[in-house]
Design brief:
The complex is a heterodimer. Helices cover 16% and strands 20% of the residues of chain A. By secondary structure, chain A is of the alpha+beta class. Chain A is globular. In chain B, helix 2 runs antiparallel to helix 3 and helix 3 crosses helix 9. Classes of the chains: A alpha+beta, B mainly alpha.
């Protein structure tokens, strides 16, 4: 429904990442103190704390994608300073600083389970498996906020095809790195580490499901899941695992972290669905970062083309 | 106590609001300003409730009886911040969508209990004047104002129920509240267990605050 034709220009070409005029600052200022005026961009705010040399690495040869939305892209500053990344901190403003020195090279990904042959691949080998595409996706958090991000990557199916899963493979499981030395959040037991997420095979093979290693035309910043993550735009954000070290194909449904920790609140499917509330809050609306009024949440986050994957399923039960 | 001390405390109680206002003005509220405002006003409500509840124990334990003069003001600041918290919810969060709010209050446990905590404070704020203490009579006034215990419990539960997984912060508030309420239980129960020993503690605690 909201899948419009793709933007003509890559976001990375049109938007110097640190120079967005922050509309939200204006709104917040006006709302809280009744001040009307243009929020000044202080010098401190211009320098993003998160841009390490690695995260700045431009990705060459990015193709545009027909899956991209032409909605307004959320400022880079917000996407890199407001992160749900419990491995670093449960405070969304902290991962940007805490992930600064996180080592993303050397990095290998183990591909095992129901596959012809177990492989341990270097992340740079994986990244070169297919041409990078920019996918501007809506991203909806289960908490009720959303962003629009120009991710860079290619369809997860490209990797799966090369991994050659056997006919027994019905699900794919993604495991995030466990490294409490580098990830202070893992020194506590807020979640059962390592973080595990998963998809049904047909979901993982859907062309919208993205294997992602960049955003805004550059390598992924550490706090956004570097060096390799998945992005499943029709599901709540927690389904899109970050800093992946293992991709395992399984015959049975993976035991995923949030669904294990609070099965009444988080399901395995976790499709964005305005009609199925979180037990503690409504999912009917969302706050797009930078906007004052909430907007209605769309079924499958507006990605109706995935509806056929769930034909005949009761999505109230399989939430 | 020195005369000018009270205005200083009054101004100090406004610092959290000033910080919030300054951040809003200077663009320092981050990616999700409404969330920051909601959390800050909620945090300060709980903090002021706990500070207010700590006045009596500190007075009794340290003999600094003059502290009573600050209790009403601190309690009213708790009410001030909870009002801002509530306004943030109805204005910035729900944008006056009454249907949505009623739905929330009825269906969302953490909002139900938070709303209850807010409503319980309203009669306390309204009857916080000397005139009302006189009209109600010390005993009845005091009984009414014990609602603050329920309100603080509701506030902590509200916080506890809204976090996703990390309960460490609400746990801190719960622990402090448990100590403060535990003190009162000890004061009530203690004398009954040990005869007249702690009789003094049982005496009526109503003091008409000065100023």
């Amino acid at each position: 429904m909201l899948i419009k034709k793709p933007a003509d220009i890559l976001s990375s070409e049109i938007t110097p990442k640190n120079l967005y005029l922050n509309r939200r600052k204006f709104l917040a200022g006006a709302a809280a103190v009744g001040a009307v005026g243009i929020a000044s961009l202080s010098v401190g705010k211009l320098v993003s704390p998160s841009t390490t040399a690695q995260a700045d690495a431009k990705i060459d040869g990015i193709k545009k994608s027909s899956f991209s939305t032409n909605e307004t892209i959320t400022p880079y500053k917000d996407v890199t300073n407001y992160n749900n990344y419990y491995e670093f901190s449960t405070d969304k403003y902290e991962p940007a600083g805490l992930a600064k020195n996180f080592k993303t090279r050397p990095w290998t990904v183990t591909i095992d389970g129901e596959v012809d042959k177990k492989q341990v691949l270097d992340v740079d080998t994986i990244i070169k498996m297919a041409a990078p595409e920019e996918r501007i996706y809506r991203h909806r958090c289960v908490e009720g906020w959303s962003i629009v991000v120009p991710w860079v990557g290619f369809s997860l199916s490209e990797l799966i095809n090369k991994a050659k899963p056997t006919s027994k493979a019905k699900f794919v499981e993604f495991t995030t790195i466990e490294d409490p030395k580098q990830m202070p959040g893992q020194r506590g037991h807020v979640l059962d580490w390592p973080y595990v997420e998963g998809l049904r095979m047909d979901e993982a093979m859907h062309p919208l499901a993205l294997l992602c290693f960049g955003m805004y035309g550059e390598a992924l910043p550490n706090q956004d899941g570097a060096p390799l993550r998945v992005v499943v735009p029709w599901k709540y954000g927690f389904k899109s695992g970050k800093a992946i070290v293992r991709i395992r194909f399984t015959g049975s449904q993976p035991q995923t972290t949030w669904a294990e920790m609070a099965p009444r609140e988080y399901g395995f499917y976790a499709n964005v669905n305005p009609n199925v509330d979180h037990p503690r809050w409504s999912q009917a609306k969302e706050r797009r970062l930078g906007e004052f009024l909430k907007r209605p949440t769309l079924m499958f986050n507006g990605y109706d083309q995935v509806a056929s994957l769930y034909a005949g399923m009761d999505l109230k039960k399989n939430f | 106590m020195i005369r000018w001390f009270k205005p200083v405390v009054f101004l100090a109680c406004l610092i959290p609001l000033a910080v919030l206002g300054w951040k809003a003005y200077s663009g320092g509220l981050g990616a999700n300003p409404i969330e920051v405002i909601t959390h800050a006003t909620g945090d300060w409500t709980l903090r002021f409730l706990l500070i207010t509840l700590s006045i009596t124990p500190i007075r009794k334990l340290t003999g600094r009886l003059w502290l009573i003069r600050y209790r009403r003001m601190l309690g009213l600041f708790a009410f001030f911040y909870v009002t801002l918290h509530f306004l943030t919810y109805i204005w910035l969060d729900k944008f006056f969508d009454l249907h949505d709010m009623l739905h929330d209050i009825a269906k969302r446990k953490f909002i139900t209990v938070g709303f209850a905590g807010f409503v319980l404070l309203i009669p306390l704020a309204l009857t916080s004047t000397k005139g009302w203490i006189r009209r109600l009579g010390g005993k009845r006034w005091q009984a009414l104002h014990r609602l603050i215990y329920l309100s603080a419990i509701a506030g902590v539960i509200h916080y506890w129920w809204l976090v996703k997984a990390d309960i460490r912060e609400p746990l801190k508030y719960a622990a402090i509240l448990a100590v403060l309420l535990g003190y009162r239980i000890a004061v009530w129960v203690g004398p009954k267990l040990s005869g007249n020993k702690a009789k003094a503690l049982r005496e009526p605690q109503v003091q008409i605050p000065e100023g």
